């Protein structure tokens, strides 16, 4: 069996943790498996390198930043190879250039184009554990690139696909995917299985332990992921195309308080006004999420929508600067909102589920301000102070 | 003009020093020159990485150690590129893989085989300052290698040769090559010029600011080196094939207290005894330096020789273990000795110089225990406590 195992920065944060990961990988190796390990940079190393760079240049070029950051994973993998060697198991570390992890040239946010597997296969045939730098790649001109947030997960999935691995294990500081954040919903339970699509919705809503891009890549190549803890031997959660159980059920509840609401009030009821508003925001690269259009007073319209909290000020300023005053009466903005979602492939054919959610929130005295849905998700905007209460009410309603 | 400038770890040890080096290189660039900069790892970074490795594995593989250490220079070069960029000058950092610095596979002590200059020339044509990692290379299987002690100097010289550079400047913490160590000989003077061969003898004797391999490479390719300070704008010392002035003179006096003396006393006067002694030492990789054979008492011989201090114990133990007791009467060992040398191409045709040195030491009441010579060097072994006195006496004698 060929297994790809990915460990994050916390799991390799110091000597003891490195030895712990080494032992864990060696257990698998001694069962006769081929083991490929993907590592992130140690602990806070990436943050420290960024700080060092900004001290010298507050606005460093992305090309040079990637050149600097790739030293982080290279440090992790070489130390890990030494750790395994000290435990008597042959290991070799490879960085993006040695693996030939080819990416696009978009520094700090590159995409993997192609992986040459010759070197890795060759080392595996010599019965070595192969330790690969996550997060990094090289472009066609031999420049280093990095893959952006969650990049090491993406590296692991891409390697698993290229090597036709039998398993891709993502080790993290939680022991799987839960029906809700256990810090907010005490009744939250670990899921044994979840579909790629459900996982994607969870990730988008800030509740996922995996980054979207890695899940998309896993879905595209049919790589079954296992999310599990590097600290325990618990089974973890399998992320795959379809799951057998709980067909009519909800897989999880997510809460996201990184949301802000903007309402443009008293808009003239002429065609194209919505386009004008969202065009202004698009030009400023502001991502708009939930949108609600309603009839206001005096036959005028109100348009409300949500943005991420950190984009609120830019969005409001853009609207005030570029939207003629005569187009609207008032702009209202608030950060005191949060999104609560239920996710599950069971939603697809069961329209009654959304109604049950709204009813549960009503009974819990939670006011719903906006609603948006996808095929496998229902999201409501609530007051921020009601978020946890709403999550628990929904979680209880669907007996997760 | 194309200039290669090499700066050591101290010169890039913190933000201010990095900015200082950046400014210095930019001055040259603004004169219209093509500038290639070679950097070592920052300050103590290499030592810190080695300590980190040894914590995990007291005896790490050299392949993985090189993989780890190469992150040091990569950190320096990317930060330097950011520094130059912040000063408004386009710069690009390149590591050994990006330059295509091909070396042998001897980890921790590789030799440069070939440098592809395409990438560097291409970047220079775009009027960028090119910043290259010193000390490191890649072998034919894409593994990282390092060049051993003084490796960054070697990188700079090899690049200067490959690029047909007009100058190769080695910046260091002293402002040139001196006639003697100024900490020991207060009358020591900076040399304007010195030949490769003289520099090699100085380096071998521990007095050189350049490592032997870089000087050998410069000699082989006829690269004129300039040794100068990164802290001042002093002219420095030029190292080249031949120098015009001081043809009959001595270029320098060197003292080396990293020497130990072993005397094997009372050896049977049968053929092959010297071979047996040095064969035992060769098998233990002990380097023998000065050798003196003398007639002892009772028609027996004494053989004395010097080794480096750290090899003394190994050498004595090897002799005791492998040399039959009947071959000799006694082995004496002492670390209380030092070598004092005069170096100069003037020695080549002027035999009287050695006699003048011996006379000067005699007048200074320094006892000479052994003598060895090369074409451009005379070395004497003295008691360690006499080393500085002997250096000063020789320095004064030749009016340096």
UniProtKB/TrEMBL annotation, chains A, B:
All copies of domain ACT, residue ranges: 262-345
Q: What is its EC number?
A: 2.7.2.4
Q: Which residues are ATP-binding?
A: 6-9, 172-173, 178, 183
Q: Which reaction does it catalyse?
A: L-aspartate + ATP = 4-phospho-L-aspartate + ADP
Any Pfam family from its record, for instance, is AA_kinase
Metabolic or biological pathway: Amino-acid biosynthesis; L-methionine biosynthesis via de novo pathway; L-homoserine from L-aspartate: step 1/3; Amino-acid biosynthesis; L-threonine biosynthesis; L-threonine from L-aspartate: step 1/5; Amino-acid biosynthesis; L-lysine biosynthesis via DAP pathway; (S)-tetrahydrodipicolinate from L-aspartate: step 1/4
Enzyme class of the recorded protein, top EC level: transferase
UniProt keyword terms in alphabetical order: Amino-acid biosynthesis, ATP-binding, Diaminopimelate biosynthesis, Kinase, Lysine biosynthesis, Nucleotide-binding, Repeat, Transferase
Is Cytoplasm there in the keyword field?
no
GO MF, one term, reads: ATP binding
Q: Which NCBIfam families match?
A: asp_kin_monofn, asp_kinases, PRK06635.1-2, PRK06635.1-4
Q: How does it assemble?
A: Tetramer consisting of 2 isoforms Alpha (catalytic and regulation) and of a homodimer of 2 isoforms Beta (regulation).
Query: What is the protein's name according to its record?
Result: Aspartokinase
Give the organism the record lists: Anaerostipes hadrus
Upper taxonomic classification of the species? Bacteria, Bacillati, Bacillota, Clostridia, Lachnospirales
Encoding gene, per UniProt annotation: lysC_1
